[in-house]
Amino acid sequence: YKQHEASFWTAEEIDLGQDLRDWETLTKNEQHFIKNVLAFFAASDGIVMENLASKFSCEVQIPEARAFYGFQTGMETIHSET
């Protein structure tokens, strides 16, 4: 849990200022590929959060593990925000 806690970051720490300019330099095929990768991650982040909330957190009784899963749920929320 403590190692995981040390890796905490927020959406505001990510500088997206250059992204549009970079996006416009990509070919249509490259943009299509990246859109599909992002769609996959957007969907899978939701699945991960659902599993953490409904399965692991209920089944695991070790306090440190429960703290880890709670923190992981928060991190997944930040991932989906960015």
| Molecular shape | elongated
Number of strands: 0
Number of helical elements = 4
Quaternary structure classification: single chain
The largest sheet is:
none
Helix percentage: over 70%
Organism: Perkinsus marinus (strain ATCC 50983 / TXsc)
Family: Belongs to the ribonucleoside diphosphate reductase small chain family.
GO molecular function: oxidoreductase activity
InterPro entries: Ferritin-like_SF, RNR-like, RNR_small, RNR_small_fam
Describe this structure in words.
With 82 residues, this protein is mainly alpha-helical. The chain has a domain of 41 residues. Helix content is 76%, strand content 0%. The chain has four helices and no strands. Helix 3 runs antiparallel to helix 4. The longest helix is centred in the middle third of the chain and has 32 residues. The chain is elongated, with a radius of gyration of 16 Å. Belongs to the ribonucleoside diphosphate reductase small chain family. This is Ribonucleoside-diphosphate reductase small chain, putative. InterPro entries: Ferritin-like_SF, RNR-like, RNR_small, RNR_small_fam. One of its GO terms (molecular function) is oxidoreductase activity.
